[in-house]
Amino acid sequence: MKLYQKTALVTGGGAGIGKAIALRFAQEGARLAVCDWDASRAQNVAQEIVGMGGEARAFCCDIMDVGAVDTMAQQVHESLGKVEILVNSAGGAIVGGPFQHFSESTIAYMQKLVGINLMGTLYTTRAFVNDMIALQRGRILNMASIQGVTGGAGNVFYSAAKGGTILFTKSLAIELAPYGITVNAISPGAIATRPGPASLPTRLGRSGRSEEVAALALFLASEDGAFITGDNVIIDGGRVLGAMGE
User: Coil, strand or helix: which one is 90?
Assistant: First the structure.
């Protein structure tokens, strides 16, 4: 087992890519803290992990609320101890209502997109990074997006937040390298569990699966990926290579 007895926390772990990562990590022996804004979803995933012989706890938290994140971190520490692997998977392009063009956007919409896709990652990482510094080891994985690389008209705030996530990843990797901690980003493209991108064409002619993203996350979180840090790994079926039909 590649993560045997490692303690891992996955935000957004109640559904989609986050759920797939939590389940895959549990299969590899990790002790899971499953965090989601929806308590029932987090609990269902935790119960599924326990049902297959693993160890998991469910935590309900709005990662856009720094106070709630700090409270959640205290609860995790009390029940599971120090976190060795952090996966910041919570986020999404479709939050706060339909897409709004920048010129017509509301402040509330902007704050929602940036809050869940960037600030929540910062808050959660801040809450657990000292665990890894104390242990002199750790893995941090931040879920970005190909829109953080290419940009995307019609959802400027999401692209900006994911671009910020990528640069946060690179900067933090430099800061934490002396402690034996790696920090990497994953940028999915057309993944079937994500409502928007899944309908877009890819070079491989199909959408990706959340389990494929989970396999990549496992590689980066395990000793197999120990010499990789500060990277943004794109998993998009070749979509960023250019327009289809060339």
Answer: coil
If you average pLDDT over residues 83-97, what whole number do you get?
Answer: 90
Beta carbons of 21 and 36 less than 8 angstroms apart:
no
CB 237 within 8 A of CB 202: yes
Q: Which residues pair with 31 in a beta bridge?
A: 7, 55
- Side chain identity at 29, as an amino acid letter? G
158 is catalytic: yes
pLDDT of residue 192: 83
195 has a pLDDT exceeding 80: no
pTM above 0.85, yes or no: yes
Instruction: Provide Rg for the chain, Cα atoms.
Output: 17
> CA 19 → CA 16, 126, 150, distances in Å?
5, 22, 26
Q: Do 73 and 127 contact (CB within 8 A), yes or no?
A: yes
Measured CA to CA, the distance from residue 85 to residue 6 in angstroms comes to 7
Q: Where are the alpha helices (DSSP H) in 86-242?
A: 107-114, 120-135, 147-150, 156-176, 210-221
Is 221 in a helix, a strand, or coil?
A: helix
What kind and span of H or E run contains 27? Answer: helix 16-27
Catalytic residue among 4, 109, 123, 158: 158
Of 88, 83, 156, which is closest to residue 120 (Cα–Cα)? 88
How confident is residue 130, by pLDDT bands cut at 50, 70 and 90?
very high
What is the per-residue pLDDT across 7-27, written as a single tens digit (0 to 9) for each? 999 999 999 999 999 999 999
Average pLDDT (121-134) is 98
Q: What average pLDDT does the structure give for the chain? A: 93
